């Protein structure tokens, strides 16, 4: 979860004005959490308090109605009329990371990941995106090698997945575009910071790509303490309570 939040905050200021630079400043006064963090917090809070994913998402999103970058148009309507709307947007994948830490076996992770998507993003591609990211995170935290994640990526999106990835700088809000791209970028990375920098400098939907890549990277690399501290300073107290609350296997120091 923390990796997703960090990636979101770092990518937030470049969402609508991409940087092609790798060596950008990670945190500035222009950085902030976006809907990606709000929805990730909502999923974690639902697990911790045993609430429905739908109710928790509605509660948190209504509490923060105007995040940096705004909600997508269709999802914003969903917040006030929470009926699944056939979405295959990347929102299904960016909010799912807490599931991969909270449940202890792969079957439960897959099942719960699908549940987080189905409340709004009930298109098969939306569900597949959420399940693929959650399964990848779960396997990474079990210590599997990157080659296993490559195999999972190819099983879900085909060995020719690169042909369908959005080009650098192209804004793509779909799971079928952003999920394979995010896994691909993670697989090229060498440490947590490198993963986030690769994600954000790639361009496009930088906060969400950052969030997804960050969630993967957290499960494979240690997060430098200074990065944790800087990111957490952007969060209000009620979010920090959720982030610092242990959810079965997961808690931050």
Element-level helix/strand string: HHHHHHHHHHHHHH
Number of helices: 14
Mean pLDDT, all residues: 95
**Tally of separate domains:** 1
Tell me the total number of β-strands.
0
Relevant terms:
253 residues; mainly alpha; ADP-ribosylglycohydrolase fold; 14 helices
How would you sum up this structure, described in words?
- The chain has 253 residues and is mostly helical.
- It has one domain: ADP-ribosylation/Crystallin J1 (ADP-ribosylglycohydrolase fold, Orthogonal Bundle), CATH 1.10.4080.10.
- 60% of the residues lie in helices and 0% in strands.
- It contains 14 helices and no strands.
- Helix 10 crosses helix 11.
- The longest helix has 18 residues.
- It is globular.
- The protein starts with a helix and ends in a 10-residue tail after the last helix.
- The mean pLDDT is 95.
Would you spell out the secondary-structure blueprint of this structure?
Blueprint (H helix, E strand, L loop, with lengths): L1 H11 L22 H15 L3 H11 L9 H8 L10 H4 L2 H6 L3 H13 L5 H18 L4 H12 L17 H14 L3 H11 L3 H13 L6 H8 L4 H7 L10
